[in-house]
Design a protein that fits this description.
This protein has 212 residues and is an alpha/beta fold. It has one domain: Vaccinia Virus protein VP39 (Rossmann fold, 3-Layer(aba) Sandwich), CATH 3.40.50.150. The chain contains seven helices and eight strands; from the N terminus they run αααβαβαββαβαβββ. β7 and β8 form a beta hairpin. The radius of gyration is 16 Å and the shape is globular. The termini are far apart. It binds S-adenosylmethionine. The site of S-adenosylmethionine has 21 residues, from α2, α3 and α4.
Length: 212
Amino acid sequence: MQPPKNKIDQLLKAETLTNKEQLKQHYNQWAASYDEDLSNKVGYIVPQQALPFFTKYVSTGSKVLDAGSGTGLMGTVLKEAGYTQIEALDISERMLEYSSAKNVYQAYHLGILGEPLTLETNAYDALIAIGTFGPTHAPAHAFEELIRIVKPGGYLLFTMRENEIPQGGIFRIEMKRLAKQNDWTLVEESPCFSGFIENKSLLFKGFVYQIT
Ligand SMILES: C[S@@+](CC[C@H](N)C(=O)[O-])C[C@H]1O[C@@H](n2cnc3c(N)ncnc32)[C@H](O)[C@@H]1O
């Protein structure tokens, strides 16, 4: 296999992974250099871009789950914005380990989105998932389990690569199905935004749902 051409390609390499074990290994191996590679070298700013969509709906006293928390980049942004009750969940124990050094999370959960979680029903006021969902990452059918753990009236915000969420695709179909069966209501779909300072062509979208 060709080595990734640059650091953004390394992130995209995860898109070629075919199963959860490979995904976990990819992030376990990347954990030590993830922050340096993304934040410092290519200017990863999806957490900063997502923040205003979150603060608009979720008060700082809320209990929040950061699903696919990685090394804690979103957690850090949330803490700086005043959130003090944030928990982390990830498939990669190494990503969780690195996030713990930042002291932004009150609890850490090793779990696989797309499979049943050991978290209690209605445990959280809000959930945020940044870069967590995608064809080789958390699948569309994971939404249902996330809805279960967020209180009715609470909010669920996630971002996805714009090219991974086409109209008529599996994610859109599932999002609409859950709205139709009254599990959640779409509150806001953001315009496309750049996720990297170094590469303006990689576009993302944010979605905010309220649990019904
Ligand atoms: C692109 S990183 C984003 C990390 C962090 N949210 C950020 O913005 O820096 C994706 C994260 O989601 C986690 N992840 C991907 N698929 C997952 C799944 N099915 N279950 C749990 N975690 C998953 C990965 O281990 C990784 O830490």
